[in-house]
Amino acid sequence: MRVLGLILILLILGFLLEQIINKLLGVKKKKVSETPGRKIDRWGRGILVVVFLCGFSFVIEADRSVIKWFWISYLIILLGFQAILEWKYLKDSNQYVTTFIFLLLGVALIYNMEYFIQLLGWD
Length: 123
Prior knowledge:
With 123 residues, this protein is mostly helical. The protein is 78% helix and 0% strand. It has one domain (2-119). It has helices at 2-25, 38-59, 64-89, 95-111, 113-119. The protein is globular, with a radius of gyration of 16 Å. The two termini are 15 Å apart.
């Protein structure tokens, strides 16, 4: 139950942080799926999900370090792909900056996850 509460808190904080960053940068939220990059976005995300789901079966029984780096690499590739598409197809928007900030925060969060687990006494 504590894990679900923590995930809910992180989601709420992420949503609020996104709103603040978008307001500071003057970003009006748009979707790549509403641009000519729609097919590239759909195919790219689909391929990434399939590749990482196939790889997850090999990583699931590995030690924490391997799992951590698996999720960090997935986040970097997925959000990096999204940021590149936003940069290319949403030229009049700085939305890619918000995506890049979330990429950095996500990597830092996953990398330090063991520390947060010890800090909360869940080990």
